[in-house]
Design goal:
338 residues, mainly alpha, two-stranded antiparallel sheet, rod-shaped
Length: 338
């Protein structure tokens, strides 16, 4: 607004009711050789015209109903009339109305900027909170990825141990099969021993009969035959007991073999399950690493948004302050009178 008044080709000064200057334009500054800041607030008589502090003062004439007055200064003739004053007042009134409208608009603009600044500040706070939560999520995802990796290692070890146990069980089943085969062979041998003992017992009986027929000459042979028969009976009983023990061992071996085979099948199932679990853990670890990378990128993006929000808030606060300053200046200008 000052630049508009300074661009007018005519001298323009504004005073308050006490005839103290509130404004002078550039033409008055150049004509009087003064600065606006030095004369504002001083009595208009500091103009130094010949009519100052006389009844011919332009303001005094207007107050007394005189329509015009003239004076000369610096080789120039000046005419102060009601028509000029009315024109100036009309111009000032127009400027005042424009200033009032601008002041109202600038007030609304300042209020809007302040509200926007508060919103941006609150948004920045929310963005910071989101960023903190994203950092926390990223930390947990990294911890999950590390735990998944450790679990994958442990699962691999357990899988290797299960495979080793499965191999050991297979070897045990094979050994039990060998034991069963050997026991069957021994059982056959025992059967042969039993047959021999039975035949020996029959021979001993025949020898005893023949010794009895021989009378006195066969007594010694009868004693031997009796001992052979006794030994045959003992051998038969021992073979029978051994056979029973071997059969019992074979039954237990068969039972143990079935248990071992069941354990081998269970271990095979465990190994298969371990392989699936290991694959799932590896997938989880890979997904966690990918999520960590994505969350890291998201965190950087949020930081950039937060930086832009902070910059915007500072800019808006500056605009609000400028708007308030402009409104204050327009209010001062609207209170000027000619």
């Amino acid at each position: 607004m000052t630049s508009i008044l300074d661009a007018l080709p005519i001298p323009l000064s504004v005073t308050d009711k006490d005839m103290k200057w509130t404004f002078v334009n550039k033409v008055v500054e150049d004509m009087l050789g003064v600065k606006r800041a030095d004369v504002v607030g001083k009595h208009c008589s500091s103009w130094g015209a010949s009519i100052c502090n006389t009844d011919s003062c332009g303001i005094a004439c207007l107050r007394n109903g005189k329509k015009e007055t003239t004076f000369s200064q610096g080789g120039r003739d000046f005419e102060l009339s009601k028509k000029v004053t009315d024109t100036a007042n009309k111009m000032v009134n127009n400027l005042r109305a424009t200033s009032a409208k601008l002041m109202e608009d600038s007030r609304h603009f300042a209020e809007s900027n302040q509200e926007l600044a508060r919103g941006v500040t609150e948004q920045n706070s929310h963005i910071q909170e989101i960023n903190d939560n994203v950092d926390m999520i990223n930390t947990k995802i990294k911890a999950n990825a590390e735990s998944s990796s450790n679990a994958s290692v442990l699962s691999y070890r357990a899988k290797q141990n299960a495979l080793k146990g499965n191999n050991d069980v297979q070897h045990m089943v094979a050994s039990m099969g060998n034991i069963r085969n050997v026991s069957n062979d021994i059982s056959k041998i025992i059967k042969t021993i039993e047959d021999i003992a039975f035949q020996t017992n029959l021979l001993a009986l025949n020898a005893a009969v023949e010794a009895a027929r021989a009378g006195e000459h066969g007594k010694g042979f009868a004693v031997v035959a009796d001992e052979v028969r006794s030994l045959a009976n003992r051998a038969s009983q021992a073979a029978k007991m051994t056979s029973e023990l071997i059969m019992d061992s074979i039954n237990k071996v068969d039972s143990g073999a079935k248990i071992a085979e069941g354990a081998a099948e269970s271990l095979n199932t465990i190994v298969s399950d371990f392989e699936q679990v290991s694959d799932l853990i590896e997938q989880i670890a890979s997904a966690s690493n990918e999520q960590s990378c994505l969350v890291g990128s998201l965190s950087k993006g949020i930081e950039q948004v937060a930086h832009v929000a902070q910059t915007s808030a500072a800019t808006i606060e500056g605009l609000a302050a400028s708007s308030e300053e402009l409104a204050s200046y327009l209010e001062t200008l609207s209170n000027m009178t000619v």
